[in-house]
Structure prediction request, 666 residues.
Amino acid sequence: MEKKTNKNRATWYKLDLSANVYPTLQRKNFSSVYRITIIMKEEVDPPLLQKAVDLALPRFPAFKVALRKGLFWRYLEPNDRPGPFVQPDIVNPCMPMSFKANNRYLIRIYYYHNKISLEMFHSLSDGNGALYLLRTITAVYLRLQGHEIPNRDGVLDIHEEPDPEELEDAYIRYASSRVKPARTQGSAYRVRGTKEPFYTLNIISGIMPVDKILKVARSYKASITEYLNAVLLYSLLEKQKADHVFREKPVKLALPVNLRKFFPSITLRNFITMVYPSIDPRMGEYTFEEILVQVHHYMRYYINNKFLNADITTNAATQQSPFIRIVPLFLKDFVVRQFYIRVQDRQSTAGLTNLGIVQVPEEMKPYVERFDVLMGQPFSARTNCAVVSYENTLTISFASSIVEADVERIFFRKLVSDGISVKIESNRETED
Amino acid sequence: MSYCVNCGVELDKTCKVCPLCNTKVINPKQPPDTAAPKPFPSLEGHAEQVPRRDITILMTVILATTAVVCGLLNLFFFQFGSWSLYVIGICVVLWIFFLPLFFSAKLNPYVSLFLDGLSIAMYFGIIAWLHPGRGWYVQLAVPIIGIITVLFLIFAFCLRYRHRSILSLAAVVLAEIAVLTICIELLIQHYYQEPLALSWSAVVLTCSVIIDGALITILRRSGLRNEVRKRMHI
Prediction:
């Protein structure tokens, strides 16, 4: 139960349904951290950016928090320590985030030339919530530079009190299905590769025009997300073929779905669920067109408010069960971690998230080049893919903890062969 | 702008090789721009180490209280012998053993291991002081603790800077076991003033040499090494 102060601010927050899982997966070399970057048209002024962060962050009380342990659950507590402080960007983003470091803040803000990057621990919010924070910080930053930026299209008014709905656990509100489908999906093919040493995250980003990719997707009678899903499935199938595995397995993607599109919530906290489009090569050889048809029908069939409601109800029922609630936290941590390692992590080959089209106020557009999103370090040695579009620029970023870039290579070559011009940027070491 | 001849993708002007296929960029009209800022920074980040102040204070208080209370009990109530020295000694040893937990970021691991050896020698010193006789402490305990400490330091060095594979570490451990057994046997003979000669430690030495020889051969031959890794991977 969230307790209210006289200023309508909570003194602590329960973790939402998805947020409970991420801290249990915390290891010395892994945290569930993702990154969203805004690329400006001019160099970033760090002291001004710090001012903007200091002004904007109090508007987001659910992000200005520290993660604490209770006897049965973790919870978020308002954090009034100094910070978070902006810092120069690093080559290995999304590095592990200790809950006690960084003055207990669970967000990091970096700058590099014309880039502002926001890294957030997944227990605070999903990409949608983080995007609101980043756009508001950028708007405040531009205002400090003397530009007029209105509060709309993802920019929140830093002088108004947050709407209580922004802070709610929307899962509990909308989970109302009378049936609870099974949670497990069966195991999937896992990409094999040479694990990179600790503190290495390989990034390969492909930048392309939205109109070109939309034209190609339309030519296949699919949406951009369906098309990109199909290309990634195709790349993973090719990789499995090239690996000459002893026993083939289905190739599955873990695809987070933004539930705000299906349930009228304005929460800034996590409100996503996973669907798993898949192709089983044991049934026979699939052509790319067949993969796309399969993905198209899967997504039309499963991604609607009824199926998604049933899915979140399963998760909500687990968390609300009185038997689970009275189990001490350390036992919950152990069971959830084991379930994740043995079941959840094995049921997808790669992750793919699409943040969709990012809107910003018209007055902000002259100063913004594009957005980038990184899904962060994968839990096991594999590659994750994240997509975001802004105006006519679509960016696809792969984050991988393995040396080989086979999946990325097949993926981008397929886009090029479909007639899409792709520009590649990477942090992989280049030949000196 | 340069394109990869294999992948067909446009490359960033700072790229020297294609990040997808490692093909070198050779564009006489536009060689890679080394002056322009790269799309990603080169600064490597490291997670911030958190000083464990609370646990340091808690452990210090618990150990110090135990030592002081036992000392007082020994002084005023249970006055038979100097039994509290055992408890005080073990509290000091435990505190020194916990040092890496308290100051993980700052403490040099070699210094920590050396202090561990020193604290164990001190504890044996307390026992020797309470039970004097025959010089076992100077002639046996101190040299054996010293040798074990040095062997631990060598192992820590190998773990940190040298070979990290299970096979090479196993070779180091076996060699250290052989050295330790030889030293122990020679020290015991010296203590009892017997002529120095190897007997049971020679058996350990022979086994270690055979296994180490096999391990080194496997490590040197890449084919063998990969075969072992393939069959024994966990």
Observations:
- Chain A touches chain B at residues 88-93, 95-98, 100-102, 112-113, 199, 203-206, 405, 408-409, 412-413, 416-417, 421-428, 430-432 (CB under 8 Å).
